Automatic annotation (TrEMBL):
<dbReference type="InterPro" id="IPR036922">
    <property type="entry name" value="Rieske_2Fe-2S_sf"/>
</dbReference>
<keyword id="KW-0560">Oxidoreductase</keyword>
<dbReference type="InterPro" id="IPR017941">
    <property type="entry name" value="Rieske_2Fe-2S"/>
</dbReference>
<feature type="domain" description="Rieske">
    <location>
        <begin position="22"/>
        <end position="125"/>
    </location>
</feature>
<keyword id="KW-0001">2Fe-2S</keyword>
<dbReference type="InterPro" id="IPR050584">
    <property type="entry name" value="Cholesterol_7-desaturase"/>
</dbReference>
<keyword id="KW-0223">Dioxygenase</keyword>
<protein>
    <submittedName>
        <fullName>Aromatic ring-hydroxylating dioxygenase subunit alpha</fullName>
    </submittedName>
</protein>
<dbReference type="Pfam" id="PF00355">
    <property type="entry name" value="Rieske"/>
</dbReference>
<keyword id="KW-0411">Iron-sulfur</keyword>
<dbReference type="Pfam" id="PF19112">
    <property type="entry name" value="VanA_C"/>
</dbReference>
<keyword id="KW-0479">Metal-binding</keyword>
<keyword id="KW-0408">Iron</keyword>
<dbReference type="InterPro" id="IPR044043">
    <property type="entry name" value="VanA_C_cat"/>
</dbReference>
<dbReference type="GO" id="GO:0051213">
    <property type="term" value="F:dioxygenase activity"/>
</dbReference>
Length: 358
């Protein structure tokens, strides 16, 4: 008996990724006025470019005719001309011109376009089928609270599942064992049990300690760089893969917070490229030496190099050794500092299951 396709139950493909979220697609600075910028996000090929008025556009980077990447094509004003048979698409993904036959445009000649928001130095993309939920794009305003010479942005890429990066930032107990002089706590942090903060689909962890001399990234900005200082670091995760981190130190009798300490506000953001590779952005705004462009460039490079040279080899090697992206299925040994990252993993799993159940 033949079953017609229309009689089959229509099931939505299950995603391994959380879709109902704003992901970073690119740094604003990375998509120039003329560029046709290709990037794979959540396993979807995406073309990013800017209209002549500067507004960013995201289209599925696949021509609906014979599936060539549109990013290999040319611009015609705000439209994109496919490099293969020259069908032309506008910024909404609608085919506007065919040089073939009568020039009639097939109704199916439509490319998917994705909603974007440009904010805080990033282009954020909504990849879910549903209408975008703007309440899910949080405020990272501290990145913009100061001069441009007091903030740095960098892009990194690694061959590992994105949740391994969340683990790495939510569990900072590795800093004394992995990192060199600039961010070691000289053994003070890893014995501490982090204080947890659980919100509505958010998880935070905080550590407070004393060290002599103070942490390398802050010591020279304290009154006495060789003398003991009180420190704090706090990480706060929110969906899908965004972690705000604040760190500070003081030698005065003041509350341990960024308002009173020498410190910085950082944002770690990841977007899966595939199940096994991740785009990773790091941005940092400091509250000291804010007008020094040369120091700014030095600082973001030093942080970038620390992640790439010290964290990434371990994360990539662990990912390969796991041979699965389902970390918890391996029954990992858990230590005190795992409370926050494991809670994040459980929320991510729950949110993905909820999406797939709808
Ligand atoms: S593949 Fe794009 S026009 Fe043919
Ligand atoms: Fe690290």
């Amino acid at each position: 008996m033949n079953t017609h396709v229309k009689d089959m139950p229509q099931t939505k493909a299950k995603s391994h990724f959380m879709k109902r979220a704003w992901y970073v697609a690119a740094l604003s600075a990375d998509v120039g006025p003329e560029a046709l910028f290709h990037r794979r996000l959540l396993d979807i090929p995406v073309l990013l470019y800017r209209k002549q008025d500067g507004a960013p556009v995201a289209l599925h980077d696949r021509c609906p005719h014979r599936f060539v990447q549109l990013s290999a094509g040319k611009r015609n004003g705000d439209d994109i001309v496919c490099p293969y048979h020259a069908l032309e698409f506008n910024a909404a993904g609608k085919c506007t011109r065919s040089p073939h036959g009568t020039g009639a445009i097939p109704r199916a000649a439509q490319v998917r376009s994705f909603p974007l928001v440009e904010k805080h130095g990033f282009i954020w993309i909504w990849l879910a089928d549903e209408e975008p939920d703007h309440s899910l794009l949080l405020d990272y305003g501290p990145l913009e609270a100061g001069p441009p010479t007091g903030v740095g942005y960098t892009y990194m890429y690694l061959k590992a599942h994105y949740e391994m990066i969340i683990d790495n930032v939510m569990d900072l107990s590795h800093v004394d064992h992995v990192h060199g002089e600039i961010i070691t706590t000289r053994g003070q942090l890893s014995p501490l049990i982090p204080q947890l903060k659980e919100g509505d689909d958010t998880i935070g962890a905080r550590w407070e300690w004393k060290q002599t001399p103070p942490i390398g990234i802050l010591a020279n900005f304290l009154p006495e760089p060789d003398v003991e200082a009180r420190h704090f670091v706090e990480v706060n995760w929110s969906r899908p893969a965004n972690i705000q981190l604040t760190i500070g130190a003081t030698q005065d009798d003041v509350p341990l917070g960024l308002d009173h300490c020498v410190g910085q506000y950082d944002l770690h953001v990841t977007t899966p490229e595939t199940e096994t590779a991740t785009h990773y952005w790091f941005a940092t705004r400091r509250n000291h030496l804010e007008h020094d462009a040369e120091f700014n460039a030095f600082k973001i490079k030093a942080m970038h190099d620390a992640f790439v040279n010290e964290d990434f080899p371990l994360i990539e090697a662990a990912g390969q050794a796991m041979e699965t992206s389902d970390f918890l299925s391996l029954n990992p040994v858990l230590i005190s500092s795992d409370a926050a990252p494991v809670k994040v993993r459980r929320i991510v799993k729950k949110l993905i299951a909820e999406e797939n159940a709808d």
